[in-house]
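Sequence, please.
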């Protein structure tokens, strides 16, 4: 006999009834964030249209690339800003 009832299915049922309890777990860029449901651990991410979608391995890959570009950009912006303040 297979046991199908566990804590995860119970919290999933809770999510189905009351909705997911998403918490932001990672800020990828200014617009793209990753969320995880506190109950069933379902993961979501913001897609290119700004909508929430399931965090598939494909999106995890995209997000890690985006995060790299984003941190490089932020570093360049910081440098430029400090240059402007010293110039002015
Ligand atoms: Zn959930």
């Amino acid at each position: 006999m297979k046991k199908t009832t566990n804590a995860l299915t119970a919290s999933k049922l809770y999510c189905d009834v009351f909705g997911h309890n998403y918490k932001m777990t990672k800020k990828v860029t200014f617009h793209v964030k990753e969320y995880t449901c506190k109950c069933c651990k379902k993961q979501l991410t913001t897609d290119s249209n700004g909508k929430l979608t399931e965090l598939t391995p494909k999106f995890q890959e995209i997000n890690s690339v985006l995060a790299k570009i984003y941190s490089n950009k932020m570093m360049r912006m910081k440098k430029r800003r400090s240059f402007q303040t010293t110039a002015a």
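The first helix runs from residue 7 to 18.
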